[in-house]
Amino acid sequence: MRDATIAEKTTPYWWDAAPVRPIPARPLPQAVDVAIVGAGFAGLSAGLVLAREGRSVAAFDAMNPGEGASTRNGGITSGNIRLDYATMAKRFGEARAIAVEAEAHAARQFLYRFIAEEGLDCDLQRPGLFKGAIGYAQYDAMARGAEALRKAVGIETWAVPFAEQTAYVGSDFYRGGAVRMDIGGLHPGKLHGEILRIAQEAGLGVHSGTPVTGVTRDGDGFRVATASGTVRARQVLVCTNGYTDGAAPFLRRRLVPVRSRIIVTEALAPEVMARLMPKRMMISEGRQLGHYYRPTPDGRRILLGGRESGHRGNPVGPSLLMRAGLAQIFPELEGVRLSHTWFGNVAMNRDMLPRIFEKDGILYASGFCGSGTVWAPWIGMRAAYKLLGQGARAESAFDFRPPASIPLYRGDPWFMPTIIQGYRLQDRIAMLRARR
User: Fold this and answer.
1) Which helix (H) or strand (E) holds 430?
2) 10-14-15-18 Cα dihedral, nearest 10 degrees
């Protein structure tokens, strides 16, 4: 019997207003200019660009379009890069590190313009983001980073000392933090539905429930085998990210699907929301396994997400763990009822950077590392311009060598529970060192 104290629904909150649905069946074309594997944010955004340029394009999705991470995420337009600037400069060179930071800002601004210019109804709000510091040493580092980011990229950002923290988040869990005003929130289910609508209007053929089973060379093009038949394509773009399967073995060995669990509270009293989320900002943390949270677009509930420690099993344990994390931040929400709990896969790679790359003539746009709301449309469109041969518009700091493969890995992330537990231990040590 279902435990009603966990959540009323185990489907994404976003699906209440924007349910994912199958596309009405249509005959497969015999041949197209471009075949796209995946119909999430990246695949649809690429298909939109290509169709508007007059190419014949078909996108194939094993599930309903958007049923993967595109409609399962928190809807925060963070565009985070997991690596800090110093690490990127050491690993890839200072020029690429600077380019990555600048492109992250450009990608966010592009998303906002895209939504406005296309008239996409997706509840976009831009209240900014507050990132909480675990200790005062971390706060000092955040303050220095905010100043450097403001000077280098021109982002409106500033440090918030502990004494002023409750003006941003109604909790004393943090020791200050930093604000960035270029980050907001939206309804990812509505955004996906709107991109799907304009892409289809442009001429993109979308085939749901049509998994691709293999891609092989065929003269100067490719044969794309699907569960419904085979299509010949002059070019192929793979945008499967956290739901990559055996049809893309080269990519699968380089992307690790990691479960991200999200919970949503029952509707809270207006005075509670005003106290806990006074500026209705998006919130993140400085922990390795930190939570991210936000008000729902209607301002009545709190949505909180984070990484799961396992990669199988039922939602009860992980949901309770997320609710305990919420109560750690907001003690008055101890035992709060949940309306929704669900999970989705994010895709991590060894470089921890999104990527555009080519292998054996197939182009890949993937590896969004938990920030696909911003990166997937941006990277998908850059990949489309690359297929079109429009070099200037295709230019991206993320277009370089493929991510390194992972030894002994063929798609089952058996090692993730150990890695997550290691991160959890690092967080405990960090909390102790912070002398809270």
Assistant:
1) helix 416-433
2) 180
224's enclosing H/E stretch is strand 221-226
Largest CA distance in the chain: 67
Q: What is the pairing mode between strands 355-359 and 338-348? A: unpaired
Q: Check residue 27 and report its DSSP letter.
A: P
Query: If you search the block for the tokens 């938990």, which residue do you land on?
Result: 370
The angle formed by the CA atoms of residues 15, 19 and 23, to the nearest 5 degrees, is 150
Give the C-alpha separation, 243 to 67, whole Å: 10
Spatial distance between the Cα atoms of 145 and 141, rounded to a whole number of angstroms: 6
CA-to-CA separations, 50 to 43, 133, 253, 309, in angstroms, rounded: 11, 43, 28, 39
Among the listed residues 185, 147, 127, 178, the one whose alpha carbon sits nearest the alpha carbon of residue 285: 178
Cα 312 to its chain centre, rounded Å, is 20
**Contact present, 278 and 170 (Cβ < 8 Å):** yes
What three-state secondary structure class fits 11?
A: coil
* Alpha helices (H) in 154-282, listed in sequence order: 188-202, 249-252, 270-276
What does the pLDDT look like over 127-168, one tens digit per residue? 999 999 999 989 998 898 888 878 877 889 999 999 999 999
> How far, in Å, CA of 430 to CA of 331, rounded?
21
Distance from chain centroid for Cα 259: 12
Q: Is the dihedral of CA 348, 282, 198, 389 positive or negative?
A: negative
Alpha-carbon distance 159 to 145, whole Å?
Answer: 9
Residue 86's pLDDT is: 67
Start-end of H helices in 203-269: 249-252
Model-wide pTM > 0.90: yes
113 vs 75: CA distance, rounded Å: 17
CATH number attached to the domain at 126-184+257-348+416-433: 3.30.9.10
Taking the CB of residue 350, how many other CB atoms lie within 10 A of it? Answer: 13
Only one residue has tokens 């380019």, namely: 99
